[in-house]
Amino acid sequence: MTQQTLAPGHEAPDREAADRPIREIERLSEQNLWACYQCGRCTADCPFSLAPSLAVRLLQLGQLDEARALATTWDCASCYSCQTGCPKGVSPARLMKALRSLDGGQAPAVFTRPADLLGRNGDPLPLQPATRPRWAPRARLAAWTRRMRAHALASMPLAFPLMSAVAPLSNRMMKLPGARQLAHLVLGVHRDRQLPKFAAQSFPAWFARHQPLGDGPRGAVVLFHDEFMDFNYPQTGIAVTEILERAGFRVELFRGACCGRPMISKGFEDGASLCAVKNVPILHEAASQGVYIVGCEPSCLLTLRDEYLHLVPQGLEPQARVVARQAFLIDEFLVMLHAKGELKLTFRPPGTLRPVLFHGHCHQKAFADATKSVQLLELAGYDVEFINAACCGMAGLHGFEKRHFEASRSACERSVLPAVRSRPDADLVIMGVSCRQQMEQFCDRPVRHLVEAVRDAIA
Asked: For residues 457 and 452, what is the distance between their CA atoms, to the nearest angstrom?
């Protein structure tokens, strides 16, 4: 049998080299790309009407240019609704996040709509040479501008201590004529988006001065507090501190860096890794002694149980796993104590509280269990209705950006607002600060965090 040779210019493709980026995406995302069998459930569940199933299919076909040019890849809010509903446990959000990280996280110059990549039979089509992403000077400038805006938004919590220290002056400055337009042009924050006010007394300042409600006979609990709790919604920190102290614990504030979630959400995993490397040894010191780490913000606390496990270097992985085992959302922690018969709280009689509409956080649904919040509210004596919505539409910083504002508002209108309008007699309760900001703006109703509602129900 003679060996067939190929003419010059028609050499066989190097399959190993072609598959290498796909394997890297699988490694970064910790996903089995081939477990997806294209049932379309993720696309049906997407609150922003994107096409995550198409992004996965393009990756399966090895069409990286097409996948990177797909608007879905860059408009994904990482709310993980696609992961929550996937019957095979695949996370398109993680795959797209890994895809975005290639080539330094730079977006291509061309964004392609899903319909432009489908043939008559519904199969993906390759991009034609004329429509492949080009890096013209204007496109390079646009990509650089997006990158700088993303970095500014991810670093914004660093300015919160200063803004709180000069409140209420900082709040007045945000209301000055032209302030929203400046944020719209420079930071890419939509002019109609209401920015949260800064508290004149931060939660750490209140905590340093407050008199504990007991001497903590049941030992210490580390409160993993976040910047929004510290400087925008100190009432959340005050409420959870009072609950834990009434339950017999001594509350200790975590003394470390930001969890890194803002950096993760904007694609700066190197910055998030620095946060993880700093925080894990500090948290491990308490966790290794059996101390629980409790948080109120799902996106922050669940970072310890999810992203930190692969953000830290290999030498810190054992410590990160110990931290992950001891990290609990406040609803998980209190329901666990109740199941053990160790929740030493007395609540007001049933029927004395207003009914509640509860909206769970997306990360809470994907990586924890939002029904724990419902159980806790019922335990506290509330008549609870769980809002059956995938995402409120905010998804962290995503809903603040002008290019996502309309999609954010539409997602809220489709999912949350109909439930809110149907129950004018009920109070709104949430777990995540993003959900709180979205519902405060579009629902025109008072909103409380879960711990505020529970604290208010204690007899």
From this structure: 9
CB 304 within 8 A of CB 327: yes
Q: Which residue has the tokens 């008559």?
A: 120
Q: Determine the structural domain holding residue 182 and report its residue range.
A: 140-186
Domain shared by 274 and 242, yes or no: yes
- What's the pTM? 0.88
pLDDT in tens, 129-161: 444 444 557 767 777 787 788 888 888 888 999
Q: Are residues 180 and 211 in the same domain?
A: no
CA 149 vs CA 46, 97, 199: distances in Å: 25, 18, 25
What is the token pair recorded at 42? 């993720």
Distance, in Å, from the CA atom of 454 to the CA atom of 216, rounded to the nearest integer, reads 20
pLDDT tens digits along 424-454: 999 999 999 999 999 999 988 899 999 999 9
β-partners of residue 64 are none
Q: Which residues are within 8 A (CB) of 93 and not within 5 positions of it... i.e. 6 or more apart?
A: 52, 76, 78, 79, 80, 82, 83
CB 323 within 8 A of CB 361: no
How far apart, in Å, are the Cα atoms of 338 and each of 221, 289, 346? Answer: 16, 22, 12
Q: Which residues have CB under 8 Å from 23's CB, separation 6+?
A: none
Cα distance between residue 284 and residue 312, in whole Å: 13
User: Residue 272 and residue 281: Cα distance in Å, rounded?
Assistant: 15
Rounded CA-CA distance 442/158 in Å is 27
Query: How many domains does the chain fold into?
Result: 4
- Percent helix, strand and coil across the chain, each rounded to 5? 55, 10, 35
pLDDT (tens digit, 9 = 90+) per residue, 286-341?
999 999 999 999 999 999 999 999 899 999 999 999 999 999 999 999 999 999 99
> Model confidence at 412, in pLDDT bands (50, 70, 90)?
very high
Same domain, 53 and 79: yes
The Cβ-side half-sphere exposure at 350, using a 13 Å CA radius, reads: 7
**Alpha-carbon span 304 to 277, nearest angstrom:** 11
Query: DSSP alpha helices (H): ranges in 251-350?
Result: 261-265, 269-287, 298-305, 308-311, 317-326, 330-339
Yes or no: say if 393 and 411 are a contact pair by the CB < 8 Å rule. yes
